[in-house]
Amino acid sequence: MSISRDGRYLAATEMEGSLNLTRLPLNATGGAPSGPEEVLSRGQVFDRQPSVSPDGRSISYMSNRLGGPDQLWILRVGTKHLDRLELPGRDLGVISAYWFPDSQKLSVLRTWPDGKSSLWVVAADGSHADELPIPPFISVGENFPVSPDGRTVGYLALTGNNFQLFGFDLATRQSRGEELPGASMV
Q: Three-class SS string for 105-172?
């Protein structure tokens, strides 16, 4: 699920024989629906993990609509146009995507046949994709958040027996991290 920044809509995955995207308008407090649910995708597909862009104009999600592994798709809310973002290489699928504050880029987690994961910065129009040079054993989660200024992408990585929280600075191309207390892998 994802709530638009203005709090007016909730994007969700609904299960009715398959997983389809829906959008629900919310009242002024965001505590209750203010109208009927709008179906955004249909068919025998698994559309999941919607994320509303900060400007509210697009929703990113993972889908198997072309068969094979999950791919990254963008739904343009105003036109209902769907775009599949083609990423380089032959991965096992996209696990998650998280919007940058400018609504022009996403941080995207991908998995590879060798069992490793990698984090990428991908242009929302598909024009550019850049793999970040971070450790190959990052924690597989739903979000790899971006700082409010869009300069840092956060991630967890296994270091020894512990997960460590890192921030990857996009300008310097360097990571810095701090060990998370109580996050031991015993």
A: EEEEEEECCCCCEEEEEEECCCCCEEECCCCCCECCCCCCCECCCCCEEEEEEEECCEEEEEEEECCC
Q: In what order do the strands lie in the sheet with 81-84?
A: 47-52, 58-63, 71-76, 81-84
Question: What is the spatial order of strands in the sheet that 162-169 belongs to?
Answer: 152-159, 162-169, 174-184
pTM: 0.76
Q: Taking the domains of the chain in order of start, what are their residue ranges?
A: 1-84, 88-186
Task: State pLDDT tens for residues 86-101.
Answer: 888 877 788 888 899 9
**Residue pLDDT, tens place only, 40-92:** 766 666 777 888 999 999 999 888 877 777 889 998 988 988 898 988 887 77
State the burial class of residue 144 (Cβ atoms within 10 Å of its Cβ: 0-12, 13-18, 19+).
buried
CA distance 119 to 32: 35
Q: Is the dihedral of CA 67, 70, 72, 73 positive or negative?
A: positive
